[in-house]
């Protein structure tokens, strides 16, 4: 068993600290990542549309969840890129591969989102 970190808190203090850190991360990503801004603006359009177009709670959850998944994966990709760049800005095959894999995860999540919308909204056409 490991010893507790002196920097860890618990309860409401921990929750408020986590919220503060999360908001700081969202602000930083919004300022520096154009892809996240584009995905965020698209989500602001698609989330209400998904609530309106979904016929029941399951469809609304699928439409909304698939939209939210794209910026979530984008945030994870951005954090991976930051960590790789923190280690070294030098060109390296493993660094390139790590960034490409993160980018591929965003692409697949976008395909999942588009496919979910197509299957939910146009089942007779597919």
Itemize the secondary structure elements and their pairings.
Elements: H1 11-32, H2 34-53, H3 57-87, H4 93-121
CATH-defined architecture of one domain: Orthogonal Bundle
Count the helices. How many? 4
Alpha-beta classification:
mainly alpha
Order of helices and strands: HHHH
**Can you count the beta strands?**
0
CATH topology of one domain: Helix Hairpins
Shape: globular
Separation of termini?
53 Å
Describe this structure in words.
This protein is mainly alpha-helical. The protein has a domain of 88 residues: Helix Hairpins (Orthogonal Bundle). Helix content is 81%, strand content 0%. It has 4 helices and no strands. Helix 2 runs antiparallel to helix 3 and helix 3 runs antiparallel to helix 4. The longest helix has 31 residues. The chain starts with 10 loop residues before the first helix and ends in a 5-residue tail after the last helix. The mean pLDDT is 93.
Which key features would you list for this structure?
mainly alpha, Helix Hairpins, 4 helices, 126 residues
Short description:
It contains four helices and no strands.
């Amino acid at each position: 068993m490991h010893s507790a970190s002196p920097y860890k808190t618990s309860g409401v203090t921990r929750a408020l600290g986590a919220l503060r850190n999360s908001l700081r991360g969202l602000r930083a990503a919004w300022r520096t990542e154009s892809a996240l801004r584009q995905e965020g603006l698209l989500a602001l359009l698609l989330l209400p549309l998904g609530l309106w177009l979904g016929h029941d709670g399951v469809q609304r959850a699928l439409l909304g969840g698939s939209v939210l998944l794209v910026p979530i994966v984008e945030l994870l990709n951005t954090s991976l890129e930051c960590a790789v760049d923190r280690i070294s800005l030098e060109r390296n095959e493993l660094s390139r591969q790590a960034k490409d894999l993160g980018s591929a995860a965003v692409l697949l999540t976008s395909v999942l989102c588009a496919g979910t919308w197509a299957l939910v909204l146009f089942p007779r056409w597919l």
